[in-house]
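Entry:
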Amino acid sequence: MSDQATGPRGPTGERYPSDLPREEAMARASTLLRDKASEIYFKYTCEHCGERNTFNDPNTLWSEGECYSCGKISKVERAGFMVVLDMKEARKRKKEI
């Protein structure tokens, strides 16, 4: 279920942040990946049941994803992401600068 004004919604009507077009999500993530102390985990909303899913492989945005909840395959045309930062590595790099 989707509502252009508010973004994707889950099966019980809760709101999810609007996903970005695939190309824009990849471009933003690429900027963040320049810092070798981070990893990106892409997320998408299942087009069948509305559940939010996260890909297991860091720094990879697959074209399709299998929903953890309903098991159906969704074409991933829009995505979001979360950044995992290795603080130990980030501090080490900051000292080098």
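The longest strand covers residues 38-45.
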